[in-house]
Amino acid sequence: xxxxxxxxxxxxxxxxxxxxxxxxxxxxxxxxxxxxxxxxxxxxxxxxxxxxxxxxxxxxxxxxxxxxxxxxxxxxxxxxxxxxxxxxxxxxxxxxxxxxxxxxxxxxxxxxxxxxxxxxxxxxxxxxxxxxxxxxxxxxxxxxxxxxxxxxxxxxxxxxxxxxxxxxxxxxxxxxxxxxxxxxxxxxxxxxxxxxxxxxxxxxxxxxxxxxxxxxxxxxxxxxxxxxxxxxxxxxxxxxxxxxxxxxxxxxxxxxxxxxxxxxxxxxxxxxxxxxxxxxxxxxxxxxxxxxxxxxxxxxxxxxxxxxxxxxxxxxxxxxxxxxxxxxxxxxxxxxxxxxxxxxxxxxxxxxxxxxxxxxxxxxxxxxxxxxxxxxxxxxxxxxxxxxxxxxxxxxxxxxxxxxxxxxxxxxxxxxxxxxxxxxxxxxxxxxxxxxxxxxxxxxxxxxxxxxxxxxxxxxxxxxxxxxxxxxxxxxxxxxxxxxxxxxxxxxxxxxxxxxxxxx
Length: 504
Ligand code: B12
Ligand code: SF4
Known about the structure:
Elements: H1 5-11, E1 17-23, H2 43-59, H3 66-72, E2 79-85, E3 99-103, H4 109-121, E4 125-129, H5 131-135, E5 146-149, H6 155-164, E6 171-173, E7 200-202, E8 205-206, H7 217-221, E9 226-227, H8 230-243, E10 248-250, H9 259-269, E11 276-280, H10 288-296, E12 299-307, H11 311-314, H12 324-336, E13 340-347, H13 356-367, E14 371-376, H14 384-391, H15 422-436, H16 439-448, H17 453-484, H18 494-503
Parallel strand pairs: 1-2, 1-3, 3-4, 4-5, 5-6, 7-10, 10-11, 11-12, 12-13, 13-14
Antiparallel strand pairs: 8-9
Bound molecules: cobalamin and iron/sulfur cluster (SF4).
Cobalamin (B12) binds next to helix 3, strand 3, strand 4, helix 5 and helix 7.
């Protein structure tokens, strides 16, 4: 959709300011799995990995960056905004740009800074924003002409206006969380709609009432839930359906956190006959009325943050909402309502032992989780978990080197498990993923899935490859540790170390 300001500006003889918003690609994982450790995989492996990368990137969540969709929807006279999604395209370094804005995620910060350098070398001003800038602003200053801290929905207009007036400030800070109830129509004009799996991304709320220690959503977006106006969300669904009738992705971290809001919203969406996916807590299984509304409004799949399957595993990480005695029942209730479950598990939690992989496997078999995602506990810089593990001496990289804590796909151990020696952990994790991701399981899960059977088959098939990659990388990491840092592999686990110290 062309921006209306263009005509007026050219009529007045003024040049439009061209702004480029950039989203970077992660080193591996949902953006196309790649080896992060294997320096020299065989020719056959390289060929196979390359072939599968593109297919997996598309089959997984190849969705546009919602943050940049919002920023590019801010209309300022005399400014036209474009999006470059590096997961799909090269940087347009040779085109003329007046201003570049880049989203910075912690695990991808090095890439974002390198991109910033490229543009600044060419004399283009660069603004950095996103989760990493909000959490670690000072580490970003040297790579930018301006940094934006916090949710930039309203601030972005100030940045663009200042830039136009040549009065760009070095730092913009969102002093308060933006009022989400105010109308803010989202435009898709800067997106290439057909390259994505879907472009129907909607966020109805921000903030999270929970405080899991490995997460930083509540640090960035606050504890109090802020909601958008329900009429506005319904209008957005209507508008989006005009250009794209594919599946909707409600990107809220917990779409069932506020039961009465969710019930009203999704009841209003029933007549639109959309299909949608989202993220929820397993507590949904105990919210029968909401569950029914979700099913009737076209919910086909939910990612459930299950993490550990026992209270011993979850409690040390402040994951109190998942109680062991209701967890399996809740997952079964959700599937019984006709909704597929992506179960997101974490192995390596403080309460985990070598028995945990079997408990996870049994849980999956009992509940029929349609897609199991088996993550390794990941200390994300800026989370309470990161700080605690640093103080316990359990980080495997220097805590100052926050960029070492890159994002990958269960391909790397970043901290020492509390009760399991590293070598045993890698062996047991590898054995678990080998047992869970087989052609037989992929076929069975696809057949038993309550809906979207093809998508379930594709996901499970792609995980055979992705967890194979994870096993290869983890074993390469293990070999390197053996030769370069054997002291890390001492059979004394941090737990035993602690106990010895206490006895002394
Ligand atoms: C949906 C989602 C996904 C989806 C879709 C991603 C996509 N294409 O956008 C999928 C599943 C693909 C995904 C993948 C990953 N994700 Co994700 N994801 C989310 C989630 C739940 C919502 C993101 C969202 O749309 N938010 C809504 C928008 C409006 O908010 P926003 O992006 O933060 O943007 C606002 C501000 O940050 C700021 N802003 C953002 N960019 C810019 C740029 C400029 C110039 C400026 C000025 C401002 C600005 O202004 C925006 C408006 O207020 C968030 C959690 C969360 N609550 O945000 C995690 C989150 C962003 N993801 C995270 C991670 C780690 C990943 C992965 C690396 C996982 C992996 N191992 O592969 C990949 C990385 C993919 C990539 N290339 O970025 C982390 C990032 C942590 C961090 N400190 O950097 C988060 C915060 C979750 C968490 N707590 O750990 N993710
Ligand atoms: S992991 Fe999920 S439930 Fe826990 S704090 Fe983060 S967003 Fe909230």
